[in-house]
Amino acid sequence: MTDLPYRPAAGVMLLNRESQVFVAQRLDSTLEAWQMPQGGLDDGEDAEAGALRELEEETGIAPHLVEIIARAPAELLYDLPDDLIGKLWGGRCRGQRQTWFLCRFLGEDGDVNLETAEPEFRAWKWADPEELPAMIVPFKRKLYEDVLAAFREWL
């Protein structure tokens, strides 16, 4: 399985005015885990465009309500656990290589709408950045620690 490539993806750490981070619970999981908006890039899609597209598709937050503050200096990786390799993304990838963006939310809570065309989340909230690694599924914990480290100077 280590011969499989990483799926290109992007993620958004979205901060509100109090410097709290947007997190949501996936519909397809029974775990109490929370995650930031993230997802795969379309073929040839620019990482910034893909990150803003994923944010809107997952949260209903339009791009004009977001200001990009920073881009992580390098792609960040995570590996799927062995029991998920071969089951996700058509079995073609072993994990994701993600480009992360730190963004400021310029809108109001009422601008969040999880009832999108293809809903992915059942609930959302604002969380303290330092709580993120403990909130995510265990196999993404290191990834979230890396995201925090990449954006530490702005948090």
Beta fraction: 25-35%
Number of helices: 3
CATH level-4 homologous superfamily: Nucleoside Triphosphate Pyrophosphohydrolase
Q: What is the CATH architecture annotation?
A: Alpha-Beta Complex
Protein name: RNA pyrophosphohydrolase
Family: Belongs to the Nudix hydrolase family. RppH subfamily.
EC number: 3.6.1.-
Organism: Allosphingosinicella flava
Nutshell version of this structure?
The N and C termini lie far apart (36 Å). The chain has helices at 47-59, 132-135, 141-151, and strands spanning 6-15, 21-26, 38-40, 66-71, 76-79, 95-105, 121-127. The protein is an alpha+beta fold.
Describe the 3D structure.
Accelerates the degradation of transcripts by removing pyrophosphate from the 5'-end of triphosphorylated RNA, leading to a more labile monophosphorylated state that can stimulate subsequent ribonuclease cleavage. It holds the Pfam family NUDIX. Keywords: Hydrolase. The structure is a single chain. This protein is of the alpha+beta class. It has a single domain (6-154), classed as Nucleoside Triphosphate Pyrophosphohydrolase. The chain has helices at residues 47-59, 132-135, 141-151; strands at 6-15, 21-26, 38-40, 66-71, 76-79, 95-105, 121-127. Strands 1, 3, 4, 5 and 6 form a 5-stranded mixed sheet that branches. It has a two-stranded antiparallel ribbon with strand order 2-7. The chain starts with 5 loop residues before the first strand and ends with a helix. 32% of the residues are buried.
